């Protein structure tokens, strides 16, 4: 268990990240920050997710002056193409077609900050995920459900029909959900 007298803040709109932190009985408040999540030309995936986690942390520190702050960013990479959240239904279908029958990487970068001590730890996790071959019907029905629209790579592995698309996973399952829970927990223990 994480023991601290400081309030804990998750700077994320993601209901999946919130659910994961509740799963480990963490008491926290949710704040939202607006950061441009676009990649930079030639930016490597690890650099991108850790940079975005830090940019979100900087934005959160403008709101929170006392506490523990957690931020994160998740991307999907296939064939050296970085796939974020789909822009619209057509883009979601395009992304799912790209992932069909292939193995891709899921990267999540995260930052944890103790504003009292000034300590900041930023890290990342990488997981390999292999999709089954998707039919046009699979893609159309899933996109019409609306589920892919707020997820990196246009799918969810948890509580979602997208789970049936996954043939194999190598690495941290929770990273694919949106937060590498074990690493974040260990980081919290170090920083409080």
Question: What this model shows, in words?
Answer:
With 192 residues, the chain is α/β, with parallel strands linked by helices. It has one domain: Maf protein (Alpha-Beta Complex), CATH 3.90.950. It is built from six helices and seven strands; from the N terminus they run E-H-E-H-E-E-H-E-E-H-E-H-H. Strands 1, 2, 3, 4, 5, 6 and 7 form a seven-stranded mixed beta sheet that branches. A hairpin with a 4-residue loop joins strand 5 and strand 6 (119-131). Helix 3 runs antiparallel to helix 4 (136-144). The longest helix has 17 residues, at 45-61. The mean pLDDT is 95.
Summary keywords:
elongated; about 30% helix; alpha/beta; 7-stranded mixed beta sheet; Maf protein; 7 strands; about 190 residues
């Amino acid at each position: 268990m994480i023991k601290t007298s400081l309030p804990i803040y998750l700077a994320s709109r993601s209901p999946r990240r919130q659910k994961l932190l509740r799963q480990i009985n963490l008491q926290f408040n949710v704040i939202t920050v607006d950061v441009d999540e676009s990649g930079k030309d030639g930016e490597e995936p690890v650099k991108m997710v850790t940079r975005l986690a830090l940019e979100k942390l900087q934005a959160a520190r403008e709101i929170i002056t006392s506490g523990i702050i957690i931020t994160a960013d998740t991307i999907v990479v296939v064939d050296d193409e970085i796939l974020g959240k789909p822009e619209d239904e057509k883009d979601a279908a395009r992304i799912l077609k790209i992932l069909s029958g292939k193995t891709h990487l899921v990267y999540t970068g995260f930052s944890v900050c103790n504003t009292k001590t000034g300590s900041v730890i930023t890290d990342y996790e990488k997981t390999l995920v292999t999709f089954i071959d998707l039919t046009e019907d699979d893609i159309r029905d899933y996109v019409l459900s609306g589920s892919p629209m707020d997820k990196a790579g246009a799918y969810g592995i948890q509580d979602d029909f997208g789970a049936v698309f996954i043939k194999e996973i190598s690495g941290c399952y929770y990273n694919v959900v949106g937060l590498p829970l074990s690493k974040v927990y260990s980081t919290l223990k170090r920083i409080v």
